[in-house]
Amino acid sequence: xxxxxxxxxxxxxxxxxxxxxxxxxxxxxxxxxxxxxxxxxxxxxxxxxxxxxxxxxxxxxxxxxxxxxxxxxxxxxxxxxxxxxxxxxxxxxxxxxxxxxxxxxxxxxxxxxxxxxxxxxxxxxxxxxxxxxxxxxxxxxxxxxxxxxxxxxxxxxxxxxxxxxxxxxxxxxxxxxxxxxxxxxxxxxxxxxxxxxxxxxxxxxxxxxxxxxxxxxxxxxxxxxxxxxxxxxxxxxxxxxxxxxxxxxxxxxxxxxxxxxxxxxxxxxxxxxx
Length: 274
Ligand SMILES: Nc1ncnc2c1ncn2[C@@H]1O[C@H](COP(=O)(O)OP(=O)(O)OP(=O)(O)O)[C@@H](O)[C@H]1O
Hints:
Elements: E1 2-10, E2 16-21, E3 30-34, H1 41-48, E4 56-61, E5 64-65, H2 70-76, E6 80-83, H3 96-106, H4 111-124, H5 140-154, E7 158-162, H6 170-185, E8 189-193, H7 197-203, E9 206-211, E10 214-220, H8 221-224, H9 228-233, H10 240-248, H11 256-267
Parallel strand pairs: 3-8, 3-9, 6-7, 7-8
Antiparallel strand pairs: 1-2, 1-4, 4-5, 9-10
Helix pairs in contact: 3-4, 3-5, 4-5
The structure holds adenosine-5'-triphosphate.
């Protein structure tokens, strides 16, 4: 699978965005990459995609270092894909359907297979209703869903999500969380960055905390969010379920439904208004 060794990346203006970063996707199913603004998350994703080339260190896919030539990258990007933080960096075509179909046509899939995959991805992301619409008329949230549809249609083994829910309303956010869970259940490896710690906590089983380009902690999600000092140093907060656990002494639950079930059980259904 995908891992890095001593990954270091320096931008042209000498900004050291990543220093000696070691991550390994085998450590979990849905992996979190978290850190405050400017910690290096997007730079990490661009390196993992081969869009940026490490200044030092290597990225290994299935045990072999990435190669930075056209042929290798053409194959690699059918196995590893990225949902960019900014959908405008991902959407190139003027029409939604053609944009989602682009990469599939590029790899030479027959048009009926392209249609099946594109329609399915647009239905999953609730973007089907505007599939004929011009991209420049779409709202930010709609563009984001088109960008996610493009990656779903590609059906790669590894999917990197850079801030997939930023700018989405609560209903769409729940939709994206559901999509990511479904992709993981299908066996895909996922790395996700988000400033929403509740989403990270609900979705991910393992994580890395980046601070000024360095991994300052890694471990199971429960362990990571128990490290008060590390979270403070990295400008992160605890998920609300973790706060309830720590401050009220309630058991630790992975999602709110389990907390509500527990509450119903200990207090009787009558005191529960949900
Ligand atoms: N093209 C660039 N040239 C120079 N410096 C850059 C460039 N892109 C990013 N940086 C710098 O690299 C560092 C890491 O930025 P990056 O965008 O990877 O962080 P991030 O964790 O994704 O932040 P955010 O949460 O704000 O999106 C920052 O100091 C940023 O200013």
